[in-house]
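User: My advisor asked me to double-check a structure prediction for Homogentisate 1,2-dioxygenase before group meeting. I don't want to rely on an old file, so could you generate it fresh from this sequence?
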Amino acid sequence: MPFYRSVGQIPDKRHTQFRQEDGSLYSEELMGQEGFSSDSSLLYHRFRPTAISSSTEHRPEKAEPVANHPLKPRHFRTHKLNGASDAVFGRHHLLSNADCRISYALADQPSPLYRNAIGDECIYVESGEAHVETSFGAIDIVQGDYLIMPMSTIYRVIPTGTEMLRTLVVESTGHITPPKRYLSVRGQFLEHSPYCERDLRSPEEPLLVEGEDVDVYVQHRGRGSATLWTKFTYAHHPFDVVGWDGCLYPWVFSIHDFEPITGRIHQPPPAHQVFQGPNFVICNFVPRKVDYHPDAIPVPYNHHNVDSDEVMFYCGGNYEARRGSGIEQGSISLHPSGFTHGPQPGAPERSIGADYFDELAVMVDTFRPLELCEPALDVEDTNYAWTWNRDPA
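Assistant: Sure, here is a fresh prediction for Homogentisate 1,2-dioxygenase from the sequence you gave:
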């Protein structure tokens, strides 16, 4: 995270005696990235964060993904997925490679306590609301929020309100950060960035929960690229942090606070980038003024990103370039490397003269091919690949 924060009670100097009312020491925990060479935070626990009373294997149901073969563009209708559960074990895995996994979750109940020890997570809220409890404190999320959850943070998601919580989840094998080009060498957002520190939210006070023999589910690395699950039972509830400080913590950014970069002619996706991860980027397309050159064609040109698979999640408004393709609210399209894609037939002509697009979409571009998971194939629109072959509507 690009700036320092301090929440709750902490001692004047790090790594010094910090005592509870009964005279015992608080347990200091350094949570840091890249060994001791990158961002970190110091957390102060009432109990030992190392004290577990059991460790058991957990085996959630899973199916191996398959290659996108024969190669073709795909369209998945996430609103046809069934089985509301919680925001962790209710994730329907859709697409994956060695760098990330993209899932969609429908949640109407609290999740268990959970820790992803493989990488950071980016959770985008399509609809609904939730109260997210973490070791760093609690934070509320609503429609349009991105929640960046650092690797190995213990958390749980509690849906609130009456609407189903629908989330798109990108699980990374590393760290998800703002693009480096938006930041100074010391980590401050620069003037050309489409968002800044004022737009970010994070926990503001400690969260203390009593409890003993508390289960936490941990997703962690196995042999090679294998993913394993373990259930730890902690002697005391892990939400016992009285204070913390540092530059590593969960944070939230709303897509509605993204200030779009526009120009006289069509701007490419890097102008819409919001985050970066290992071998992938996340962009968002928001309501905005469009190209103002007198001869501009506002919708995208046909393009073939030879190094990338492009995933687009359509989560609001009207996506003019895809009219006639079957794309709808909650749709996910996959345009793989090896396929030239672009606007639907008739879209370039229709867009001429437009001065505003009312669209909301989240894009994930990966630099390794994505494979298809079973839930995606269950809700695939198998006619999508041929929609460019139709006459304009």
